[in-house]
Amino acid sequence: MNWSTSISVCNWIGITCNARHGRFATIHLPDMGLIGTTPPHLGNLSFLAKFNITNNAFHGELPKELANLRRLKYLVLALNNFVGGFRLWLREFSYLKILKYLHIPSNKPRGSFPQALFNLSSLKVLAFANNGLSGYLPARIYDQLPQLKALDLLRIEIQGEIPWCISECSNLEFSGMLYSKIVGKIPRGIWDLTMLTRLHLGGLGIEDCNRTDAYLPREDAINTLVLFFFSTVVYIICIANR
Fold this sequence. Notes:
The chain is mostly beta strands. It has helices at residues 86-91, 141-144, and strands at residues 15-17, 24-28, 35-36, 50-52, 57-60, 74-76, 81-82, 101-103, 110-112, 125-127, 132-136, 150-152, 157-161, 174-176, 181-184, 198-200, 205-206, 224-225, 235-237. The longest helix is centred in the middle third of the chain and has 6 residues, at 86-91. Keywords: Leucine-rich repeat, Membrane, Repeat, Signal, Transmembrane, Transmembrane helix.
């Protein structure tokens, strides 16, 4: 990496600065083999709009000061080793009014899923797969996240039923809840989501996929289904449901 004090930080690899003010606008450092913790001073980068440190070896707790980044639109922290403190830190996200992309899968946080996170009406992608968080989806998720395109909750302890109003999330393209604690029936209206391309519902407590009152339109018990009459759906995985 060319991080040298002899050149401007705006010319460092992975750094983009705001043309007008010369302030940090983007930190894009995926797959760089970086090791360490995230310093609280990141919260001082008031012009930062994109922060991506996917697939490195960052560890420890995320600093609560990240919630000071009011211009932040994209936050991608996947495939690191962050632990603890997520619930308190995520609760601060209600201040990030223009955040569109929140991607924090495959870390090691524990605790309950903060409901305040669902108040970020600008969110388009919410991804928390393979974490130790638990909680419930809000009953009126569409009202709270009207722009939602992707909801990735694979292998986390989400409980309860799939909210019936999820069928009103007209922009939804992907929804994954494999191996969570979702129970009940699949909302009938979910098949009206014309933008939906992938729906992963394996390993849940959802009622038998073969039963017509389960509202899953499939003809047999195969694990992968292509819905030919639903032109935008590429595939649906429904593995080992009860």
